[in-house]
Amino acid sequence: MKITAARVIVCCPGRNFVTLKIETDEGVTGVGDATLNGRELAVASYLQDHVAPCLIGRDPQQLEDIWHYLYKGAYWRRGPVTMTAIAAVDTALWDIKAKIAGQPLYQLLGGRSRSAVMVYGHATGADIAQTVDEVLRHQEEGYRAIRAQSGVPGLDKVYGVSTTGRMYEPADGSVPAEHDWDSAKYLRHTPELFEAVRLAVGEETHLLHDVHHRLTPLEAAQLGKSLEPYRLFWIEDPTEAENQQAFALIRQHTTTPIAVGEVFNSIWDCKQLIESQLIDYIRTTVTHAGGITHLRRIADLAALYQVRTGSHGATDLSPICMGAALHFDTWVPNFGIQEYMPHSELMLSVFPHDWRYERGMLYCGESPGHGVDIDEKLAARYPYQRAYLPVNRLQRDGSLHSW
Ligand code: GCO
Ligand code: MG
Questions:
Q1: What is the distance between the alpha carbons of residues 217 and 244, in angstroms, rounded to a whole number?
Q2: At residue 165, does pLDDT exceed 70?
Q3: In a mutational test of the pocket of ligand 1, which residue from 169, 240, 312, 403 has the highest number of ligand atoms less than 8 Å from its CB?
Q4: Could you give the strand order of the β-sheet that contains 400-401, starting from the edge strand earlier in sequence?
Q5: Where are the alpha helices (DSSP H) in 102-255?
Q6: How far is residue 319's CA from residue 92's CA, in Å, rounded to a whole number?
Q7: What is the arithmetic mean of pLDDT over 368-381?
Q8: In terms of Cα–Cα distance, which of 204, 202, 252, 199 is closest to 225?
Q9: Residue 99: which residues within 8 A CB-CB, separation 6 or more?
């Protein structure tokens, strides 16, 4: 069997998605997600101009060799653009391999470790009262784990809080929007939020929170300590993670569990965090961390240190990523939780899929492959529209801060 084409499809059915479709001389095809929010066309070009010509004529079944060919063969290693492109190829090739075997993908990984995948949903509100209402609505809908974010008094636009009343979708505009930030205001507000939320939901529901890289290590330690009475499932990205050692300081001061890794793209980004047991959950995804082949290496390393998976699952990852992630989650022994931000009906119709959500759990399908495809005709009706993630500035003097 030989690869005959590798085509990049860029579409915007409400938000941008980049998809790679690999075709073979025997008619079997596979798809992979290559969406890197706000930098979509860089990955599209990487795939189209540099990767696709090297794939033609190769045996699609040799996906391990192709992974290393693309990783070592580029000479320039790692980075979000490269690793997202490699991930798309890897996901499409796993799809093809499983279709050839006539098996759902999780069977090729080692089979089923669980009957369903526990997810967390997003509850956001402009203030504490609205957030509590949203958390209760999610609880009634069957969610067992809920992420709570709320507006902060004195701050205009805050990460995770929708300004339109619709689902939160941060990428927008012909140039990046500007948000403002003040860590002291946030640190005063967040324990009050979780006191109210915990009181309202009772003890059984898991609660999560995303700090979005905004605190210093010491501030993050203060936050973790102040949230201990409310027994969170995790705080996510409490500080920037380039310096992995920084997490040691947070760890010394708090037992609130920590999740990191949605912006990581390789095992090297989290090696020290995992080996020194500085985190509890690793959030790397199929799409941004080199595909199933590389994510499996990360999960296996994590298992040695009792770190569990908690894959990123925002709407900027396409329904293809979700399909592949659910096969991975169904197999991976050290599964923790899966993020779930539902896509719109339109987005879902562009990506026909066999996975489904039911009362707080996601289920991968049983059809051969990862179970997701792209309707190219429909996708062609929604051309790319430039959109950026916001930038963030300190309220006190306008200095640029992590968003
Ligand atoms: C999350 C994330 C997202 C990111 C987004 C960036 O935990 O879901 O932080 O909301 O901000 O994926 O593209
Ligand atoms: Mg996050």
A1: 11
A2: no
A3: 312
A4: 178-181, 391-394, 400-401
A5: 105-109, 128-140, 183-201, 217-227, 246-253
A6: 13
A7: 98
A8: 252
A9: 28, 30, 368, 369
Could you tell me which of 5, 57, 124, 80 has the C-alpha nearest to residue 289? 80
> Two tokens at 358?
């039911």
The single-letter code of the amino acid at 256 is T
Residue to probe by mutation, ligand 1, list 40, 146, 212, 388, most atoms within 8 Å of CB: 212
pTM of this prediction? 0.97
Contact 235, 280 (CB under 8 A): no
Distance in angstroms (rounded) separating the CA atoms of residues 194 and 199: 8
Q: Which of 354, 348, 355 is nearest to 318 (CA)?
A: 348
The tens digit of pLDDT for each residue in 217-270 reads 999 999 999 999 999 999 999 999 999 999 999 999 999 999 999 999 999 999
Query: Which residue's CA is the closest to the ligand 1 atom numbered 8?
Result: 314
Full set of structural domains in the chain with CATH: 3-104 (3.30.390.10), 109-367 (3.20.20.120)
Q: Which residues are catalytic?
A: 159, 212
Protein residue with least CA distance to atom 2, ligand 1 = 314
Q: Give, using CA atoms, the residue closest to atom 13 of ligand 1.
A: 37
Give me the pLDDT at residue 164, please.
Answer: 66
Q: Which residues line ligand 1 (CB under 6 A)?
A: 37, 170, 210, 212, 236, 262, 312, 314, 316, 339, 389
